[in-house]
């Protein structure tokens, strides 16, 4: 089960870094206010809108990927082993 933990950690670290960069660019209006969670600017171009969609998708990929590799797959393997023997 160490490989599942490593895959979940890689998703968390790698994709989390990309998410933090995009959130820092588009959702940090000032250093005194909300950082990484602020409201995005209203007048973004096409590429800015695509970056916000990508940032949202990456956030869900992190959550679902980590839960899958850290909870779902190990629980399924333990359940399979329990019923097999």
TrEMBL record:
Q: Keyword set for this entry?
A: Membrane, Transmembrane, Transmembrane helix
Domain annotation DUF7314: ranges: 1-83
Record keywords: Transmembrane included?
yes
Q: Which domain of life is it from?
A: Archaea
TM regions (residue ranges)? 9-26, 57-76
Q: What's the protein name?
A: DUF7314 domain-containing protein
Origin species:
Halorubellus litoreus
Organism lineage string: Archaea, Methanobacteriati, Methanobacteriota, Stenosarchaea group, Halobacteria
């Amino acid at each position: 089960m160490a490989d599942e933990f490593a895959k979940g950690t890689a998703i968390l670290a790698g994709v989390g870094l990309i998410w933090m960069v995009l959130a820092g660019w588009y959702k940090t209006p000032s250093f005194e206010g909300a950082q990484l969670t602020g409201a995005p600017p209203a007048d973004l171009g096409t590429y800015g809108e695509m970056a916000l969609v990508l940032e949202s998708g990456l956030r869900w990929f992190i959550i679902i990927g980590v839960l899958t590799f850290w909870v779902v797959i190990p629980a399924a393997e333990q359940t399979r082993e329990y019923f097999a023997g």
